[in-house]
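User: Hey, quick favor. My workstation is busy. Could you predict this chain's structure for me?
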Amino acid sequence: MKKENITILIPARMESSRFPGKPLAPIEGLPMIVYCAKNAIDTGLKTYVCTDSKEIKTVCDLYNIKSFLTQEFNTGTDRIASVIEKINCEYVINLQGDEPLIDTNSLNNFINEMKILEQEDDLIISGVSSVKSEQAFDPNNVKCAILQKSNYIQYFSRKPLLNSDETSNLSSYYKQLGLYGMSKESLKKFTSMKQGTLELAEKVELMRWLEDRNKIYAAIIDCDSISVDTPQDLVDVIEKLKLKS
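Assistant: No problem, here it is.
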């Protein structure tokens, strides 16, 4: 798969019940949305932020980050789909704007997994990482059940989902990263579907794809990521970055 055929789109919104304005929260002297975008830009892929906030767009302009101003949407994937016809590409990576620990190395590993999209139609790739049992009971982490032989995801939930006997050497729990890959056509198909009962119940947007009996492939990435949902999450992210430096 040629890298010039892939574009990274980063959805971001200001409204958050637990952390209003979080895309502009500072990480190492940069607004979080800028920090995430720079991780993406460093892969060498075309990168755009997609937001319904004029404030976020202004910040992106200040840092010379390309962006689109969109309407309000229920999910980040619906948001990026609204601009897809303005971009010349065949494949899209949806990188959530609250995942600053998904660094350039993790993104490059994910990009290498995207070649499977050339082999199957109606397929989405979801980045996942192994987590310990205590993290599996955190409702902020979206867990997934994976078929071990094929790496296809069977279900997503905010409740623990076992993948193997906890006494085995295999990882028992996986969490979903805010990192999806798909073809332009699959993105259009996704956003044409209505939100399903399970998507609304689990509050996981990719359940829409599974409910319509489509496949999701698990790209297992060694990435100790934290999705920033609360101010404490931001503190934890900053502490992890300090340990790395």
